[in-house]
Amino acid sequence: MNLTKQEIQFIDNYLIKNEVKFWDVRIELLDHIVSAVEDKMTNDGISFNEALLDVHRSFGNQFIEFGVSKDKIFEKGLYQSNAGFKKFIRNKQKEIGRKHRKAYWKTFVPFITSIRFFVELLLLAIVTFVAYQYSIKAGLFAIMSGIFISEFTKLFYGGLKKFKSKSLNIQSAVASSLLLTQLPYWLIMLFNWNFENAEVKPYYILFCLFALLFVFSRHSVNNFIKIYNTYNERYKLLIS
Hints:
Helix content: over 70%
Shape: elongated
Largest sheet: none
Structural class: mainly alpha
Number of helices: 11
Number of strands: 0
Radius of gyration: 25 Å
């Protein structure tokens, strides 16, 4: 038995009220719940309300019927607890993280061996070298700029449109930026602390570390753009 458009819209609104805020997760849940409700209505011969309440409970959403009148069981049962959906979202977040990491490392070597990346790295090296002629700090700032530009590119696109801020896939892809934008400062603090009393500080260590960070950061942007484009297209299909 197929659900009506009104019933499908009711399920979508019910998920929103249960704080399933990420649209990509909600679409997945909507598809699963609609299929499960249709199966129960067809195979068990029960009503839409009964089937949806059964599916709601099957996710681990608790419902205490004691003290609830019979005519309020459906309404109260759907919104009394969303613990099961919260657990689903946490598990989905872990699953997406694993998927993104796998995609990152799968494309890492092909990207860093590409001509495009070689040209970018060469340009950064030239800019850093020219800046270094003025001062060590200028050189460090130049190479750090490559990292910051990469990470702020993700942060910019990650918050550019409303749909991206409500996509769990996009948020997970952007999450690493918070660490990578702060890591250079921590490295500098650690370097200064470790070589505080040195007459000549080995700044080449910092330059090497920042160059390595740029490699990982730049590929992170490359991986993010692929995720961005994928879910941008899916969202366009959703609203069209």
